[in-house]
Amino acid sequence: MPVRAEFEIFKAIKTSTMSFVKEFKEFAVKGNVADLAIGVIIGGAFGSIVTSLINDVITPLLLNPALEAAKLQNIQDLKWGAVKYGSFLSSVISFLVVALVLFMVVKALNKMKKAEEAAPAPPPGPSSTDQLLMEIRDALKK
């Protein structure tokens, strides 16, 4: 293989690698990636809040009477044979709370967005042609 051909192959590989790196840099620097990373971090923190809400608030207030009637101390102790449906029930409650809170957040954001869109823009002034015609009309009136 001649040296010139090897150089052209190397040049093509270098160009495609540089364009890939450039594309990746543009993608990684965009706000969407940063927003996604922030969302994942906040989502993890939100998960611990929901877990605490379920374990420390909802379970004692709503489920303790049912658990006492079943002579149990914890929702995870609910089981039928080897099936631990109490853990599943706890996960379903957690999911429903997360879904409800996210629905309320999205609804509030949509309401704020609609309020911004509802403000009407001031009507545009006359075009340059209309302005010129009005000046001619006013000049003829004099």
Describe the protein's architecture and organization:
By secondary structure, the protein is mainly α. The chain has a single domain (3-117), classed as Non-ribosomal Peptide Synthetase Peptidyl Carrier Protein, Chain A (Orthogonal Bundle), CATH 1.10.1200. 80% of the residues lie in helices and 0% in strands. It has helices at residues 3-29, 31-69, 85-118, 128-141. Helix 2 (31-69) crosses helix 3. The protein is flat, with a radius of gyration of 32 Å.
Kindly provide the radius of gyration, computed on alpha-carbon positions and rounded to a whole number of angstroms.
32 Å
- Kindly state the percentage of residues in helix: over 70%
* Assigned CATH class: Mainly Alpha
How far the N terminus sits from the C terminus, by CA atoms, comes to: 88 Å
Q: Provide the low-confidence segments as ranges.
A: none
Shape: flat
Mean pLDDT: 77
The CATH topology, please? Non-ribosomal Peptide Synthetase Peptidyl Carrier Protein, Chain A
Estimate what percentage of residues fall within beta strands.
under 5%
How many beta-strand runs?
Answer: 0
Quaternary structure state of the chains depicted: single chain
Order of helices and strands: HHHH
Taking the sheet with the most strands, its summary is: none
Number of helices: 4
Number of domains: 1
- Output the structural class: mainly alpha
Q: What is the CATH architecture descriptor?
A: Orthogonal Bundle
